[in-house]
Amino acid sequence: MSDLSAIDHGQEAGFGDFVQLLKPRVMSLVVFTAMVGLIVAPVHVHPFVAFTAILFIALGGGASGALNMWYDADIDRVMRRTASRPIPSGKVSEGEALGLGLALSGLSCLMLGLASNWFAGAFLGFTIFFYVVVYTMWLKRSTPQNIVIGGAAGAFPPMIGWAVATGGVSVESLLMFALIFMWTPPHFWALALFMKDDYSKAGVPMLTVTHGRKATRRHILVYTLLLAPFALALALTSVGGPVTLVAALVLNLMFIRGAIRIARRDEDQAEMDGYKAEKAFFRFSLAYLFLHFGALLVEASLVPFGLGGW
After folding, report:
1. pLDDT for 236-257, tens place per residue?
2. 99, 192, 261, 304: which has the fewest Cβ within 10 Å?
3. Exposed, middle or buried, 18 (CB in 10 Å: 0-12/13-18/19+)?
4. Nearest-angstrom CA–CA distance, 140 and 149
5. For residue 67, what are the contacts with CB-CB under 8 A and spacing of at least 6?
6. 283: how many CB neighbours lie within 10 A of its CB?
7. Number of Cβ atoms within 10 Å of the Cβ of 175
8. E strands along the chain, which residues?
9. How many Å apart are CA 37 and CA 73, to the nearest integer?
10. DSSP structural state of residue 58
């Protein structure tokens, strides 16, 4: 019956609807961090190989998004933030989303292996499996640690990019992973604070639902404090340098200041001003990650001129 939803609504899916299935906003983060991991790696990669590798990593990220929307169609219909997605809105059927996700998963892993190396291709396959099976099917609906553990899926792309260039893993790629992994909980918990009752209505055990908003605010501060050392450690590795270190110091001081502000607020105060501090923290968290990885790119571009790196 669910596969007839597009017909029931009298709408035909357009190209843009299938693009939305791939979660383009999330894909942009996947592409950017994977590209940085590839570029800052110590092994030169031919531009054509690099381009095709990033393309297939993007397709793998899109496949994960389509499979996530297929499995989560029931809760997407309940939540305001996701009710307009292609499946809940009746533009794409669940079967179409499943077929697209499976096809792109196989294609992206196979082609990444052929274009670069089989370790990178297998790593991409593991990442898709982790996001769809471990996070979406298991953790998301069973534990408030869903974002904490499941955040690993979004942290793997720079390691995949590094693996494309080197065929392996290193301290540098692990620290890039750690940066995203530790960033993910405060980023999503801030969103949960001002999304009101969406998660409770959908039956998703987000921390705001299981432990309350006051505890969530404390958790945001704790994870933000734990994040800073990983950012500074990455700046001190072979891919870092003065630019990255300055960026890490400034960005983390600003991030910690925002987390302290959130931790000191109560719900009455937040609701009265429309959750301004929480929304500002969420927006800055996006800039925080892009600027961190952008600093790594700037550092790498300065190295040939003897200006970047240690």
Report:
1. 999 999 999 999 999 999 999 9
2. 304
3. middle
4. 10
5. 97, 98, 101, 102, 105, 128, 131, 132, 136
6. 12
7. 20
8. none
9. 33
10. H
- Residue with the two structure tokens 């607020």: 265
Nearby residues of 276 by Cβ (< 8 Å), 6 or more positions away: none
Integer Cα distance of 105 and 102 in angstroms: 5
Residue 136 DSSP label:
I
- The CATH class of the 1-169 domain is mainly alpha
Q: Which residue has the tokens 């496949």?
A: 63
The one-letter code for the residue type at 234 is: L
For the chain, which residues make up each domain, given as ranges? 1-169, 170-310
Cα 188 to Cα 190: distance, rounded to the nearest angstrom: 5
Angle 52-56-57 from CA coordinates, rounded to 5°: 115
Listed in sequence order, the residues at least 6 apart from 143 whose beta carbon sits closer than 8 Å to its beta carbon are: 149, 205
- Residues 151, 223: Cα–Cα separation, whole Å: 13
Q: Name the more confident of 157 and 270.
A: 157
- Calculated CA dihedral for residues 167, 168, 170, 174, nearest 10 degrees: 110
Contacts for 267 with CB less than 8 Å, ≥ 6 apart: 213, 214
Q: Please state, in angstroms and rounded to a whole number, the distance separating the CA atoms of residues 7 and 160.
A: 39
